[in-house]
Write a structure and sequence with these properties.
- The chain is of the alpha/beta class.
- It has two domains: about 250 residues, Alanine racemase (TIM Barrel); about 130 residues, Lyase, Ornithine Decarboxylase, Chain A, domain 1.
- It has 13 helices and 19 strands.
- Strand 7 and strand 8 form a beta hairpin.
- The protein is globular.
- The structure holds pyridoxal-5'-phosphate.
- Pyridoxal-5'-phosphate binds next to helix 10.
Length: about 425
């Protein structure tokens, strides 16, 4: 599928007149339409709910849009929980799917009415100690071990993954939780990431539905929901086949009707915790070419770096690049597109065929709407960028300002050296 930007060069020029590059830009219309399509695909299940994985895009304005679309939030840290509360979450709107969890986070998650999804059997004790009781609604995360394979050869390795409980543990956990007063149960698993197949959710659903039937039989637990978590992928490359959410919803329905309905469990709700699928394609990183270098290879230096988008450096991930205004020119140049970190993996693209790039050209790096800004860091003292929303009516809105040196130094404000830094900030920053 051809990858086309959701923004025009004309719109970008208006934005950069106000907000300098680099920045992440999000497409409100795309986010809303996609969320609506997800709800339609699962409308056969009356209890269906998407809990957006906050770590993918922890930006309040984006969370508010998703909340308006009916989403709750999947959190895994204190600050993510705080954000969920700040955007108006009520009890039941938050799923707390954490691991290696600090005790205070259980406490806060419960206080705001989050549904706690236990990653480990030992967390039962921790949770009970933290709260003084076990919540009436509780979920447990499952890890089947082994290798998880799909027919297109895509696989993942649950036996190597740190998450979840074994089958024996989840049976024991349900018994213990029930004894301690839990009344409504859920199960959860996340077995493969960024899956480029309509088969992943139906296959995972089959595994979890079988488990739900088994757990009900073994423990008598009242299972209210099955949480399919995240993992639906997006087409990062032009040649990738996009997933079809309607086909995925139907596949899950078939598994549901084959396994849960005959077991008298036709009232179980389906939950999801999609992150990438909800916002990934509806964000991009806008950056300007500021430098070209011709040595053993051809390099284009841009004003963004891995701090703004870590996935290429971290996973060798492909992110498509459009040189704005040059969409119809031949891709007859081969470039490495680099940031300025003192790390040779700070490259948004390696040996990429692109049109001739000149200094001042705007590059649009696609599919940064999930695990993009949020993975950022501050290596080399680089500052995190702004985030801008392209609203449905075509206007644009700053939804997070760029970091300044003052932000970067602010954790030093307890030290005498901060006075020096502050006077320098005042001298050189407008
Ligand atoms: C990261 C994560 C998700 C979201 O994953 P995506 O690949 O973005 O869909 C959902 N649930 C949990 C527990 C996660 O850790």
């Amino acid at each position: 599928m051809e990858k086309t930007p959701f923004v025009t060069l004309e719109q970008l020029n208006e934005m950069i007149a106000v907000y300098p590059t680099p920045f992440h830009l999000y497409d409100e219309k795309g986010i809303r339409e996609n969320a609506a399509a997800l709800l339609r695909a699962f409308s056969w299940n009356p209890g269906f709910r998407e809990y957006f994985a906050v770590k993918a895009a922890p930006t309040p304005k984006l969370m508010q849009i998703l909340k308006e679309c009916g989403c709750g939030f999947d959190c895994s840290s204190l600050t993510e929980l705080m954000l969920a509360k700040a955007v108006g979450c009520e009890p039941g709107d938050v799923m707390f799917s954490s691991n290696d969890t600090p005790v205070e986070e259980f406490y806060y998650a419960d206080e705001i009415g989050g549904i706690i999804n236990l990653d480990d059997i030992t967390h039962i004790e921790t949770l009970e100690a933290a709260l003084g009781h076990i919540p009436e609604t509780i979920s447990c995360r499952y890890n089947p071990g082994g290798v998880f394979t799909m027919s297109n050869g895509i696989m993942d390795n649950p036996s190597d993954s740190k998450y979840g409980m074994t089958k024996e543990q989840i049976v024991s956990a349900f018994r213990i939780l029930k004894d301690k007063g839990a009344k409504r149960f859920g199960i959860h698993a996340f077995l493969a990431s960024n899956t480029a197949t309509n088969e992943y959710y139906p296959k995972l659903a089959g595994i979890l539905f079988e488990l739900a039937v088994y757990l009900k039989k073994e423990t008598g637990a009242d299972i209210r929901f099955v949480n399919l978590s995240g993992g639906i992928g997006i087409p990062y490359r032009p040649e990738d086949e996009p997933n079809d959410i309607a086909v995925i919803g139907e596949g899950v329905r078939r598994a549901y009707e084959a396994i849960l309905t005959p077991a008298g469990m036709g009232d179980v709700a389906i939950y999801t915790e999609l992150g990438r699928y909800m916002t990934g394609p509806f964000g991009c990183l806008i950056t300007k070419a500021i430098h070209e270098k011709h040595i053993h290879k051809e390099y284009i230096g841009v004003d963004a770096c891995a701090v703004n988008l870590m996935r290429p450096a971290m996973y060798g991930a492909y992110h498509h690049i459009t040189v704005m205004g040059k969409e119809n020119q031949p891709c007859d140049h081969i470039y490495d597109v680099t940031g300025s970190l003192c790390e040779n993996n700070d490259k948004f693209a390696i040996d990429r065929h692109l049109p001739l790039i000149e200094r001042g050209d705007l590059l649009l790096i696609h599919d940064t709407g999930a695990h993009g800004y949020s993975m950022g860091y501050n290596y080399n003292g680089k500052l995190k960028s702004a985030e801008i929303l392209l609203c449905q009516d075509g206007s644009f809105e700053l939804i997070r300002r760029a970091e300044t040196p003052k932000d970067y130094f602010s954790t030093l404000d307890c030290l005498p050296v901060y006075k020096q830094l502050e006077s320098e900030i005042n001298r050189i920053c407008r």
